[in-house]
Every structure is written in structure tokens, then in C-alpha cells.
Amino acid sequence: MFWGCSSLSDIKALENWNVSNGNNFSDMFLGCSSLSDIKALEKWNVSNGNNFSFVFCRCSSLSDIKALEKWNVSNGNNFSFIFCECSSLSDIKALEKWNLSVQQYKSMYLI
Q1: How far apart are CA 106 and CA 70, in angstroms?
Q2: Pairwise CA distance, residues 3 & 58, whole Å
Q3: Of 13, 76, 70, 63, which Cα lies nearest the Cα of 44?
């Protein structure tokens, strides 16, 4: 959706988006290298999502992912490279509460 929008830094307008029927979130913010604040995504209902591959890949300014802490990703089956090349990301504790099966976890490549 916003793939390659390297200047995108303000996504507050997405805060009230209804994404509850979405199932493929892959590549959504791929290459958004200026994106650092994703708090607008905190209330997103991604419970029907199954593909989260490359969602934040190459978001090199992204350092705080606490907004994703309450995401329900239990239906996800592809998390490949979800945070690849996120060079500012140093803490992924927000993902501790994600309900992932062993198979889902194996598909999550952070770098």
C-alpha cells in the first residue's frame, strides 16, 4: 500500500481505519525509511490477517514497536522479514504477547 514511500513519516490519519476484514498486510510499509512513529496502528484489528510478510521491512527509522503489542496475529501464517533491515529497532519486547504457534514463529524473520 505505501511501499517505497521513503518520505512517509506521519501516519496519524490511519488511526481510525477499519482493517478488520483485511487478510494480507504484506509490504504495507515496505521501504518507508522515514517512518518512526506507528502509534496510529495501535488500535488496528488485524485478527483476520494471515500474511504479515515485509510489513515494516526497510523502515530504518522505526525504533519503537510498542503500538503492535496488542495486535492479534493468531491467524497469521507468514511473518517473513516483517522487520528486515529495521536498523534502528533494538527492542522487540512488545511482541512477547503475540500468540504464535511454533510454525508461525519459524516463519518470522526479523532481519
Answers
A1: 21
A2: 10
A3: 70
Of 89, 93, 90, 53, the closest CA to residue 73 belongs to 53
Condensed to tens digits (0 to 9), the pLDDT of residues 25-83 reads 999 999 999 999 999 999 999 999 999 999 999 999 999 999 999 999 999 989 999 99
Domain ranges of the chain: 18-35+44-63+73-111
CB 87, CB 111: distance < 8 Å: no
String of DSSP letters for 36-89 = ---GGGTT---TT--B-TTTTTT-TT----GGGTT---TT--B-TTTTTT-TT-
User: How buried is residue 85: exposed, middle or buried, by Cβ count under 10 Å (0-12/13-18/19+)?
Assistant: middle
Cα separation, 62 vs 82, whole angstroms? 12
Reduce the DSSP state of residue 24 to 3 states and report it: strand
